[in-house]
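TOKENISED FOLD:
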Amino acid sequence: MKKKEEYLMLREEITWRQKVIDTLGTFTYTVFISILGIALSTNNIEMFLLPFVVILPISLKVAYHKYAISKISVYLKMFLEDINDENSFKWENFQSLYYKKNPRGMKERTFFYGSSVEYILMCVLTTIFFWTKYFTQSEICFTVFQISVFLFIQFIVIFLVAYVTIGYTVSEKKKPSIIPNWEKVKEELK
């Protein structure tokens, strides 16, 4: 396969993965709002915990796609881009250089990070709705054990979603850990 064809194919895969991430986000919003709507219309407080069942696996899937994008990006940079060749693509190299020379300003950082915390916010909203419903319903009474379990579940899910989301938001931070793996492959091919 020629370098140009391979490069374009991999850039297309990055675009496809970005679309998957957007589709998963739309799906999560829809399910989140639907579940909360049902939970608000019923008197079943446990329904307010159901969004966690959707948010956690989807945030993991999104993190996986972001990691895969970083891996492809590093491959493009190391194997298919040549900064000295005028006919070579240079997007990955130039993008990395761009952010080294032009760090994000406050406004750009706000938009960038703000667009990445949606799953964390959904988890926090789920927790707020749950405890608001609990404290406003006099007939709902849980044991100390049940309250502890609910708190534990909420804490663990929020922590995991936050860890994954924050860890995979900035692909530039993941790329340095991927480079040695591709270098091993490159060494093997010599």
Remarks:
- Helices lie at 3-41, 50-80, 91-101, 106-114, 118-136, 144-167, 171-189.
- The CA atoms of residues 58 and 72 lie 21 Å apart.
